[in-house]
Fold this sequence. Notes:
Elements: E1 3-9, H1 15-24, E2 28-31, H2 32-39, H3 47-54, H4 67-76, H5 78-101, E3 108-112, H6 116-119, E4 128-133, H7 136-147, H8 151-160, H9 164-170, E5 173-176, H10 181-197
Parallel strand pairs: 1-3, 1-4, 2-3, 4-5
Helix pairs in contact: 2-5, 4-5
Amino acid sequence: MSLCYGLTGGIGSGKSTVAKIFADLGVRIIDTDEISHNLTASDGLAMSAIRRDFGDPFLDIHGAMDRNKMRALVFSDADAKQRLQSILHPLILEQAKAESLSPTEAPYTLVVVPLLLESGHYRDWLQGVVVIDCPEYLQISRAIQRSGINEATVFSIMTQQMDREKRRRLADEIILNDGSLEQLQEQVTELHKRLSIH
Length: 198
Ligand SMILES: Nc1ncnc2c1ncn2[C@@H]1O[C@H](COP(=O)(O)OP(=O)(O)OP(=O)(O)O)[C@@H](O)[C@H]1O
Ligand SMILES: [Mg+2]
């Protein structure tokens, strides 16, 4: 079985950018955001439960989850957020595990999970956790630049995530993303060499 590590970090820390660099180096990437997207597509495995729980108003005309509507709901309704997570999280975990067990030529696998350290359900099957560490002011400006959301929204998402120091303490490996993309590439390449040896 190939070794499996987690990759996590706060909003805008550089998870997608780092995952792409690892993928270009030949690492298998399992992206839980992508799994979540597929589960809530029109033919997605989560749609019958979402329809049962939230009703047709939260489906678009194709039968996929209406992401904007759902985002607005869970932003203001903690109970709805909990209900949605209890549908999606077990399915995401199950699928990520299943994908990690399929054969691969890659030297190891990285599972990208934004809330890996917050959730507690991943550590037992991962060999270690790589944290992308980034100063908060850069997280904020990069998140705004990437998705066009405003500063207040980024702040409120950050307060729901683990703080920087705690995340650093729980990391097995840290990638510090406070410089140029070239510096990021160098760190990833160096870590890749070490992870490939095991
Ligand atoms: N070292 C860097 N220098 C300049 N720009 C960067 C650097 N790292 C990341 N970025 C940019 O910052 C933005 C956020 O990065 P990325 O999308 O990889 O973060 P993320 O952790 O996946 O974010 P999200 O939590 O929103 O999924 C992107 O536009 C990316 O191109
Ligand atoms: Mg991302």
